[in-house]
What does this fold into?
Amino acid sequence: MIVKCNRKCFDSVKCRHYYPGDQDDINPLDPIAGHFDFPPGTEVYFKQRGTKTTPAISTTRIIPGLVEDEKKKNPVVGETVKTDSEKVTCDICGIYTGTEGQVRAHKYHCAKKQANAG
It folds into this structure.
């Protein structure tokens, strides 16, 4: 997979120095893969540092982020996009427009203003 280097490193297998911005065909499961930017959803080599009590662990991880196909299906992840047809208008004042929860909270304050004014 052709990827871009994100920091200075040396590949001892190929005997090659890489500098930020260099591109090469890198196997995501090689130890050098930690120094390259892979696309989201790719499984890459990952080495977890050890401490005084735990040894270092060599494993793999999946690059976080959305795969392009999922981006096309859901443009915004974690949020529901409200269209104009799903928005509600306040029954009391007839001016405020928002989502159902926003209008419900607004109605409470709108009713309170009318009770204080009248």
